[in-house]
Amino acid sequence: MNKWMKTLFASTMCVVAAVALAQGPGGPGGQGGMRRGGMFGGGMGMGMGSGFMLMRQDVQNDLKLSADQKAKIEAISQKYREQMRSRMGGPGGGPGGGQGDWQARMEEMRKMMEAQDKEINQVLTPQQQKRMKEIRLQLMGPAALMDKEIQKELGLSSQQVSKIEDLQRKAGEANMSLFQRMRDGSVTREQVQQAMQNNQKALETETMKVLTPEQQSKLKAMRGAEFKRQDPPGGGFGFGGGRQRGGGPGGPGRN
């Protein structure tokens, strides 16, 4: 699987995992449901923790990170990457394992990402932390509304949350289907990329329809000033987007 396909798969699995954990083993409203905002329950999305975001050169530039901050963040990120690689590499550590194993691994990863975020926040200034939250909301797009804290801040009703979860589930299924068709060779990489962009636009439109005008205005304010994203050629879907040219903080080719 090449780098672009890994990025696509990771992007799609973010949505699939989020909805799966939001619903729990019993499905929507079923027994054992985990109403934690899914993988977004900790105030950050799967693949959109601070460590993943700060791999992006455009995020580093927007935050105006110093060389010292980049070096400290890279050391923290490397530590947690090694931990995640070790914890997620065993039996049942991927979608092919049992549902219980998969959900347990995702929950473990969520906790590690929360711990990583806390360490990184100690490196950032209060203003940079605030801006990170704004950028995260912009990069995550509609998936940000799976975050329990965002739902609470916007005042979403249980009915609105259910509608958003259903839209996210359908989007995840559609993108997984595209991924499979690309692996089968029935569609090209370019066709999949365009289809996913179209799917994302449609998801954004339908999700906004679920919100009231007041909630839409509040979400816009929470996103802050426009983030000028610069995705690498052939990738970048707003879920970590893969490592951009120049790599992560502190590596070759950084400012």
Explain what you see.
By secondary structure, the chain is mainly α. It has one domain. 63% of the residues lie in helices and 0% in strands. The chain has helices at residues 3-23, 50-53, 57-63, 67-88, 99-123, 126-140, 148-154, 158-184, 189-210, 213-223. α4 packs antiparallel against α5 (99-123) and α8 runs antiparallel to α9. The longest helix is centred in the C-terminal third of the chain and has 27 residues, at 158-184. The protein starts with a helix and ends in a 32-residue tail after the last helix.
Structural class: mainly alpha
The helix/strand order is: HHHHHHHHHH
Number of domains: 1
Cα shape: globular
Count of DSSP-assigned helices: 10
Mean pLDDT over the full residue set = 76
Q: What is the helix content?
A: 55-70%
The percentage of residues in β strands lies in: under 5%
Can you tell me the residue ranges where pLDDT is under 50 for at least 5 consecutive residues? 1-47, 91-96, 234-255
Cα-atom radius of gyration: 18 Å
